[in-house]
Write a structure and sequence with these properties.
- The protein contains 5 helices and 12 strands.
- With 328 residues, it is an alpha+beta fold.
- The protein folds into 2 domains: 140 residues, Roll (Urate Oxidase), CATH 3.10.270.10; 152 residues, Roll (Urate Oxidase), CATH 3.10.270.
- The strands form 3 sheets. Strands 1-2-3-6-7-8-9-12 form an 8-stranded antiparallel sheet, with helices on one face.
- A hairpin with a 2-residue loop joins strand 1 and strand 2.
- Helix 4 packs antiparallel against helix 5.
Length: 328
């Protein structure tokens, strides 16, 4: 349900005396998911909005709520929901990551019996409406951003996960992109792969390449980091390595190679990122076979394709810096 750190820290073992002798609780937690929140910042005539869904999960030191039905230490999920709204009122919502950090740190500072707080935030893709400016018609840029009107532009989802542990000096901060669907009609190939008795797929010298990008990255340093700019930088890198130059494009000999070049560019561009992970499922478009219909439509077909979402291949990889010393 929640993202986990891209490199797992060692788990903390609870005293065996608190567990039934045959079993132990190896993971636990509880919280409130999908808390919908809209925050409006009004600075004169210029308004800014952030709409998001927030999830908060807590882990307690004690297991007595599970083992004995003792609820004394439980911070109700409804209380966690109220905390989301009250801290949004108090601190605002500058970015998903900063708000998640505020929430996670609050739970540990407020409740001494909480061992770990995990906050997940997904931002809704609102952008300001751009309208034609009558006074600058004919100029290169005759559009202006509206002060208080917005349009929903679901190109991709910005999400983050923040995990703060009481006895860990550094918090885990993961940002990510999901739902970014892209397609290009040429400069994608797949040839010279294993040829044995199980193979039916011919070499693909020029094919449609389409995928839905899921990408997450973990920061090693967040001091003075602009999370919104960093997220936009990663999205731009994903699009650049997929599409290439607007006129000539970029060749992709495999989804694997495109994925690796993207992850490498993220690490080259953002020194604060320690590790990046990507998943690229193939969204296939197969040529419709017109050979049996030559009297109706003579010639080869390279214009009509059949979209096939299932089954699909999935390619994924994680790229990390070699000098990592800790999980964050």
């Amino acid at each position: 349900m929640f993202a986990t750190p891209l490199r797992q820290p060692s788990s903390r073992q609870l005293p065996s005396a608190t567990m039934p002798h045959l079993y132990e609780i190896t993971d636990k937690g509880y919280g409130k998911d999908a808390v919908k929140l809209m925050h409006v910042s009004r600075k004169g005539a210029m308004h800014s909005i952030q709409e998001c869904e927030v999830g908060t999960h807590l882990k307690l030191y004690s297991n007595k709520d599970f083992l004995q039905g003792d609820n004394l230490d439980i911070v109700a999920t409804d209380s966690q929901k109220n905390t989301v709204y009250l801290l949004a009122k108090k601190y605002g919502l500058e970015s998903p990551e900063k708000f998640a950090l505020i929430l996670a740190r609050h739970f540990l500072n407020k409740y001494s019996h909480v061992e770990e707080a995990h906050v997940h935030v997904e931002a809704y893709p609102w952008q300001r409406i751009r309208q034609e400016n009558a006074s600058t018609k004919g100029s290169n840029d005759n559009h202006q951003l509206h002060n208080h009107a917005f349009i929903f532009t679901p190109t991709a989802t910005h999400f983050c996960d923040v995990i703060v542990r009481r006895h860990d000096p550094k918090q885990t901060v993961i940002s990510g992109i999901k739902g970014l669907r892209v397609l290009k009609t040429t400069q994608s190939s797949f040839t010279n792969f294993v040829d044995d008795e199980y193979r039916t797929l011919a070499d693909q010298h020029d094919r449609i390449f389409s995928t839905v990008v899921e990408c997450s990255w973990e920061y090693s340093c967040i001091e003075n980091l602009n999370f919104i700019q960093a997220w936009e930088s990663v999205k731009d890198i994903v699009l650049e390595k997929f599409a290439g130059d607007p006129k000539v494009g970029i060749a992709s000999p495999s989804v694997q190679h495109t994925l690796y070049l993207t992850e490498k560019q993220v690490l080259d561009t953002l020194p604060q990122v320690a590790v990046v992970s990507m998943s690229l499922p193939n969204k296939h478009y197969f040529n419709f076979d017109t050979k049996p219909f030559q009297q109706l439509v003579p010639g080869d077909n390279n214009e009509v394709f059949i979209p096939v979402d299932k089954p699909h291949g999935t390619i994924y990889a994680q790229l990390s810096r070699k000098d990592l010393k800790s999980h964050l």
